[in-house]
Automatic annotation (TrEMBL):
CDD domains: IPT, IPT_PCSR. The lineage of its organism: Eukaryota, Sar, Stramenopiles, Ochrophyta, Bacillariophyta. Keywords: Signal. It holds the Pfam family TIG. Residues 1-69, 82-150, 164-243, 262-342, 346-380 form the IPT/TIG domain. The keyword Signal applies. InterPro entries: Fibrocystin, Ig-like_fold, Ig_E-set, IPT_dom. This is IPT/TIG domain-containing protein.
Length: 399
């Protein structure tokens, strides 16, 4: 390298005839001290010099230099700045991309000093080396060299046990919705390269960042998916940004988008107990669900069949007012239904008249509290309904 420091070995004849003096080497016009390694081998460290080739001569007495010479090439100083991926699985060969300065054809990589591997130079700032499989986890030092002797770099590459995914939650992803997925498995490593990959079955692989929770749990936010032809997507995990994924993936169904068609009734008593029927476009009835009245949740019953996809909820007790109503499946699928209003329970204080003909048709006046909004009267058991159109308010607390 141009900054010097390379140990240069020079072979010749009659190098052993000088006694009491050290040999010297001259690189261009610069003289440096050397050592007599063997009878016909002198070694000197190259001094700094300008780029290009310089003639090298040797001297046994510091004054008389050999008439013969050889060429020594000064090349740009090599610097390694970073590498990717920053980690690789054990027992797997990997391509490592190195970024730096002064990279040039003929450069070689070394992993922990075990041999030299020719690199593919992409440019003066980027090169690729193939790392042989490593049997055990740990840190590996990566260096580069042009001559097999002088090494530059010293970047660290981490070898990890390969990440494995065993299960995920929730068990499905709603169509067109990004959800937070929790992956359970082994050998998850906390780094910026931790990630989840989604795809398979002809779909392009999409990689998203992962958030480390422990060596057995991580989270990531899923992309938004349309329902694929086969109905599901595969998820893998990776410690190095998807360069090496888990050997096996987990298939997750994509649930068709659900919408609410109708809700009845839209109000109920504050002390709860109102049966509410929500008709939906479609629903995965294999999952249990809950109705959320604002932030309060109650169990629901999903009913499928005869064209009636309904979810039935019983309202909880709640203060007066209007709250949003949502359906939430046990595994995370959620839809907004609309608003539900909690009103006081009506009470009857008097009825006039108190009897009528068996053929019906008798107008009846009821007086009491909280009668506003009443649309139906029920007579006896079994109940006999009277249409809402038959109800007429005569004053605020009478109908």
């Amino acid at each position: 390298p141009a900054d010097g420091g390379a140990m240069v070995s020079i072979k010749g004849k009659n190098f052993g005839h000088s006694v009491g003096t050290l040999p010297t080497c001259r690189f261009g016009g610069t003289v440096v001290s050397g050592i007599r390694a063997l009878e016909n081998l002198i070694q000197c460290r190259s001094p700094p010099n300008q780029l290009g080739r310089q003639l090298v001569h040797v001297s046994l007495n510091g004054k008389d230099f050999t008439a013969e010479s050889t060429w020594f090439a000064y090349r740009p100083v090599i610097k390694l700045l970073r590498l990717t991926p920053s980690n690789v699985p054990a027992k797997v060969g990997a391509e490592i991309t190195l970024f730096g300065e002064g990279l040039q054809p003929g450069i070689m990589c070394s992993f922990d000093g075990s041999g030299h591997i020719s690199a593919m130079v992409m440019s003066s700032t980027q090169m690729v080396c193939k790392m042989p499989p490593r049997g055990i986890a740990g840190l590996v030092t990566v260096t580069v060299t042009m001559n097999g002797t002088d090494h530059s770099g010293g970047l660290f590459l981490r070898v990890l046990n390969r990440a494995v995914i065993n299960s995920v939650s929730p068990l499905f992803i709603p169509e067109g919705t990004s959800v937070q997925l929790v992956a359970h498995g082994t050998h998850f490593f906390p780094s910026n390269s931790l990630s989840c990959q989604f795809g398979g079955h002809g779909m392009a692989i999409t990689s998203v960042p992962g958030h480390w929770l422990s060596d057995t749990r991580l989270t990531c936010h899923t992309p938004k998916f349309a329902v694929p032809t086969n109905g599901d997507v595969t998820v893998w995990v990776s410690n190095n940004g998807g360069v090496h994924r888990s050997p096996q993936g987990i298939r997750i169904p994509i649930s068709p988008k659900v919408s609410a068609i109708s809700i009845s009734p839209i109000s109920g008593n504050t002390d709860g107990g109102t049966v509410i029927r929500v008709k939906v476009s479609r629903w995965d009835f294999s999952f249990r669900c809950k109705c959320y009245f604002g932030t309060g949740a109650v169990s629901a019953v999903a009913m499928e069949g005869q064209g009636n996809n309904e979810v039935i909820c019983v309202s909880p007790s709640h203060p007066l007012g209007t709250v949003p109503l949502r359906l939430v499946a046990e595994e995370g699928n959620s839809i907004a239904v609309g608003n539900f209003t909690f009103v006081p329970r009506p009470s009857i204080q008097s009825i006039q008249p108190s009897f009528g003909h068996t053929v019906g048709g008798t107008p009846i006046t009821l007086r009491g509290d909280n009668l506003s909004g009443i649309t139906l009267c029920r007579f006896s058991a079994p109940p006999i309904g009277v249409a809402a159109a038959s109800v007429r308010f005569t004053e605020a607390e009478a109908l």
